[in-house]
Write a structure and sequence with these properties.
Blueprint: H1 5-12, E1 16-19, E2 31-32, E3 38-39, H2 44-55, E4 59-64, H3 69-78, E5 82-85, H4 90-101, E6 108-111, H5 118-121, E7 126-129, E8 143-144, H6 153-164, H7 168-175
Parallel strand pairs: 1-4, 1-6, 4-5, 6-7, 7-8
Antiparallel strand pairs: 2-3
Helix pairs in contact: 2-6
Length: about 180
Amino acid sequence: MEYPKEVLERARRVRFLLLDVDGILTEGRIIVDSEGREIKSFFVQDGLGIKLLQRMGLEVGILSSRTSLPVAFRARELGIETVIQGELEKGRLYQELLREKGLRDEEVAYMGDDWVDIPVLKRVGFAITVPEAWPPVKEYVHYITRHPGGRGAVREVCDLLLKAQGKWEEVWRVFGG
């Protein structure tokens, strides 16, 4: 797949991929069973993309305005150490994260799809959303994935980052035979 030059330039600088959950890592549905337990569906290929990024030296984190036990469980399963949940003011939390990690805006990619994501999307070096994002969000991003949220959008971005940073060949050497 061919990417615009500006997208590749932004992707080359990324050291940290920060992800919203509902609508990005999931299709955006919240299922609650008769006991009040939340159920989420995660796409396995997105998970493998995250693991590949980590293996190639990039860090991945989660920034969600909702608090969800399934998200915490999935993050642990994937080895995601930075998990911030339950706060609508994502811009403030993002600023704190930059300080903690010693990162600059241009070193961060963020995937979000709704109003609460805009403050972060406006700041990061590589702002990304999905095709079904709330329409105003699309005005603040550098890249809109071809795949929908919860169905390969995260994997698409992981592959893009690996290709832009020249790590795709190493992934193939290790896993492609």
